[in-house]
Design goal:
The structure is a homodimer of 282-residue chains.
Chain A lengths: L2 H15 L10 H14 L12 H8 L3 H13 L3 E4 L3 E4 L2 H4 L7 H7 L4 E12 L2 H6 L8 E10 L2 E10 L8 H6 L2 H7 L4 E12 L2 H7 L6 E11 L4 E10 L4 E8 L10 H4 L3 E8 L1
Chain A binds a DNA duplex (19 and 19 nucleotides) through helix 4.
DNA sequence: AAGTGGTCTAGACCACCGC
DNA sequence: CGGTGGTCTAGACCACTTT
């Protein structure tokens, strides 16, 4: 049995697992994209394997080709597969699709098997912070919720997190904030961050940071300024975070890809914008 | 005249400028997306303005609705507009669509009105660098092109750039490298980077960096390790770059958005992955 | 009820690649 | 040449928001 024959049998076995529920409120393309993604992430389809072509997959699942194509576009966008005109679609190489996904620092630490804890240094309502207000596109006198937290992992100080919330969330408590991540709390209050602009820099630690983060001699901090907005562009919060440089890395994936994950053959279209995904890890 | 009436007249004037060439080899959706993008970037359409709806725009341009929709999806992906079911499409707020796009450090400096220059410290063919080879998924003994450059702006040292190329480009010359950016040279040789994984960190400058970059006392460096791959996942290069922290910031835009720039209403689909764009600036 | 975006169909023709 | 992905059409029905 040749290796390609083995790959074909993998493909056939995988295809047999696929199914979509046309009565579900979940879009068909989304159902299929999730199943295809899982197949690759679980290793059922392996790097270099030929993907079933769009037409026959559509026929097999009784879907139209555009719908199947849209599903595959999701995988292309995630960097899991590569489409080549005239050739076919193949599962991308290992190093390409180890694409980091974003999670909050709290979640990231937890995922690393560490125990994240939070010490709330400050929680104040109705604060005025003209700089934060300006960054959030609000009037300078807009009252904000000011927040200062020290994030630790297994008791080791990791980051100093300062945030100013544009929302009148008077029910936030120190206990809530020490129990988990800020964005999780916001989502519980139906606040869905949609866009966040971050600026990553670095400098030597201030004396306060040195004290709170227990940084070593000459250890710098990685600084992240963040502006978050919801679906409609309404401001959510402004954050200024300092991470111990020796304990953190920010992973970014830059990708050149047209919007829908297809690759126009035209040179003008190739000069397209580039997209990336971000994760942070300790 | 009400402000919405003014916005409507802007919209009408803008629509009159639109046109697509059906005989062009450039995809129709791409032609339209570029024109719409330009209209927003040039301020012809302003934040908060209502976009023409998909159906009438399709009718006006004699295109099908899916094609127009695909164009608008490009803008959604770029963060320029916001779609809301039952409401319409509006131009995103200023702070949301000031989305930085990626460019090479060389291009970024030039765009800032600075004069970028490059000093080639090393250019060596057939080098063995097991660490770089491993990162690129190559055999440890694979010969690489080793490259070390000092990038300056207006004569001020900005960054130390070390790269190892996986490609047998024996025709690279010091003169080429001092004339422009590395990736521009690669594109001239038909090498199209498709995916780049970067890890951003920070540490205090080594003595060599201190000497070459003329860093101030206690000034750290921002470090970026980068792996670049082409369309097919073939490795292009491994880079280790050190930027003077006081002179650089990395801008990242995180966005939660489904693949094609649409927003599934289903909660399961909302728990989708997040995308971002990266730029670096001095 | 009217109008918007969100999804989907069942085709079509073309460009590119490998045989 | 056949098979693949890339683009496009002309509809359809639905979900959601506003009036």
């Amino acid at each position: 049995m040749t290796s390609s024959a083995i790959a074909e049998s993998r493909q056939a076995a995988f295809r047999a697992q696929l199914s979509v529920d046309k009565t579900s409120p979940i879009p068909l393309y989304h159902q299929l994209a999730e199943q295809l993604t899982k197949g690759i992430r679980d290793g059922i389809l392996q790097p270099g394997d030929q993907f079933e072509n769009e037409v026959s997959l559509a026929q097999y699942l009784d879907l139209s080709r555009p719908t199947v194509r849209r599903s595959i576009a999701v995988l292309v966008d995630r960097g899991l597969v590569v489409r080549r005109r005239g050739v076919g679609t193949t599962v991308a190489h290992e190093t390409v699709h180890r694409r980091a996904e974003f999670a909050s620092l709290h979640d990231d630490l937890a995922a690393s098997g560490l125990v994240p804890t939070t010490r709330v240094l400050k929680l104040a309502f109705g604060q005025h912070e003209p700089r934060a207000a300006h960054a959030l596109n609000l009037a300078p006198a807009t009252p904000l919720v000011a927040l200062e937290r020290l994030r630790m992992a297994n008791g080791v100080p990791m980051a100093l997190l300062r945030n100013w919330l544009a929302l009148p969330l008077r029910d936030l408590s120190v206990a809530d904030l020490e129990a988990g991540g800020l964005y999780e709390l916001l989502r519980q209050r139906a606040v869905w961050p949609s866009v966040a602009q971050q600026t990553i820099g670095s400098r030597s630690a201030t004396s306060e940071e040195h004290r709170l983060l227990q940084t070593g001699r000459g250890e710098p901090v990685l600084t992240v300024s963040q502006l978050a907005f919801d679906d409609e562009g309404a401001p959510i919060d402004f954050g200024e975070h300092s991470y111990r440089a020796s304990l953190h890395r920010f992973e970014v994936t830059r990708r050149s890809a047209p919007t829908d994950g297809t690759a126009p053959s035209d040179p003008a279209a190739r000069r397209s914008h580039q997209f990336a995904s971000l994760s942070q890890s300790a």
